[in-house]
Amino acid sequence: xxxxxxxxxxxxxxxxxxxxxxxxxxxxxxxxxxxxxxxxxxxxxxxxxxxxxxxxxxxxxxxxxxxxxxxxxxxxxxxxxxxxxxxxxxxxxxxxxxxxxxxxxxxxxxxxxxxxxxxxxxxxxxxxxxxxxxxxxxxxxxxxxxxxxxxxxxxxxxxxxxxxxxxxxxxxxxxxxxxxxxxxxxxxxxxxxxxxxxxxxxxxxxxxxxxxxxxxxxxxxxxxxxxxxxxxxxxxxxxxxxxxxxxxxxxxxxxxxxxxxxxxxxxxxxxxxxxxxxxxxxxxxxxxxxxxxxxxxxxxxxxxxxxxxxxxxxxxxxxxxxxxxxxxxxxxxxxxxxxxxxxxxxxxxxxxxxxxxxxxxxxxxxxxxxxxxxxxxxxxxxxxxxxxxxxxxxxxxxxxxxxxxxxxxxxxxxxxxxxxxxxxxxxxxxxxxxxxxxxxxxxxxxxxxxxxxxxxxxxxxxxxxxxxxxxxxxxxxxxxxxxxxxxxxxxxxxxxxxxxxxxxxxxxxxxxxxxxxxxxxxxxxxxxxxxxxxxxxxxxxxxxxxxxxxxxxxxxxxxxxxxxxxxxxxxxxxxxxxxxxxxxxxxxxxxxxxxxxxxxxxxxxxxxxxxxxxxxxxxxxxx
Length: 623
What we know:
The model is unreliable at about 5-15 (pLDDT under 50). The strands form 3 sheets. Strands 2-1-3-4-6-5 form a 6-stranded parallel beta sheet. Strands 13-12-14-15-17-16 form a 6-stranded parallel beta sheet, sandwiched between helices. Strands 8-7-9-10-11 form a 5-stranded parallel beta sheet, sandwiched between helices. It is about 40% helix and about 15% strand. It is of the alpha/beta class. The chain is built from 26 helices and 17 strands.
């Protein structure tokens, strides 16, 4: 402060006034009078990040190291958090997503500046479309060096603006705590989604380190050098002023939208008078406003047939009489009332055209845009509610005492399901021209999985078949990419799921194409004792693509792979690996059991299943 005054007094009066005004505004001189900087302190901004994360019960950080972010990861480790460093940043981001979904909490990924952040763009977009509350913390070049050609300096805020719910950049150490508190609330409120917080390197390191690197001369001789020193000293003072004074670190209240009583009563009347109602339960219903057991009780009390999608798969267990797994398109054409509980009319419902014209529609979604997507073209809600779908269903059931859906309607749908599944099982008994029947592999996996198994789906054709056969045993025991359809999620999702629920058995169902994105993460599994098990449907092809490309365009170009020995890669990384190709059902079961036994000993495993082709799902396309 005295330096500013002395420098200003040496100038003409008008200029000196301008100088004082500039420095007072630019460097918050009045604030700094009350909030002095302790230049001897060894505290740093990374400790504030760790403090706020700890206050929000964060116990796991996914990362890949970088100099820009070292103060954060070191401070988080000192707070007792588990620091999981992956072999690629995108895996760290997928892991944070999987951790958030299975743990019904936030997932935290911390990556370095520039390429560290560009490497996670796909995973963050996937989290956005899956409505997952991921906190992305990224390093950045020093505030004072932005736009001046510093190492890995790019416009990161513009890069993430379209893929995040909110983007924030911290330019003062004192703003770290308040910014992170608000970011964590934003990520979980309303329609959840990822939030990006940019933390430049000079807000993270201690005062002494930043001062030594900022370019301040010890004995300035010229007027220019003195002016530069003056500017830099004031910049540094403003950067650290009030940095480590006590602040509130308690979590801010999360904002949940809920249905109004008036709209709820209209829905009560619609349900009461319907003869053939059906509920489509989507991923939003699994968000942490309502305890899952309360939602299950409400659905079972209503007795309305349910189709479960996305994260809601497994909500009603493996064999619930109201859970209908097959023939959804036909049922939607017959129903007289369709409740879209967090389900969106996008490509998965043919943009709304799947629903019969005669049906009344109750749509419930936390977001206005998703609530009415395509309603101007192919469908129209009878009642549209901006609210939490699980809260709506629980309140709906409470408002219908004694109501029970006609059991004959539910039984008829269940009978159709049984017939379709018997047909599918018969298809699994056929023998391909070579190698294994993929359906047979999946039916055997269904028999072998434990009741606490979490299924991670990462692939195209093989995984699409698995969705018809594998039955999640309970709530939050199924993970797939969501509407973005991203390949390569497997390793990260599985890692996040296992660390969020350490007692669970975690299986990845891989296509051989998608496996290539992340097989190196078996190294991470070994280093952190994460005994993931993978079943790979290896048909040496991007089959989901060739299904349409070859018939339509007459070429397989770009679609053929090799029957590679992926199990040897896993063995080289310290895991258990096997390949099977004989159609003997005993061989499949025995290999799966051996992998389970090795997993129980703490060893990750991979079963490389060479598979042939069947006519199941013939004619399906990927766009």
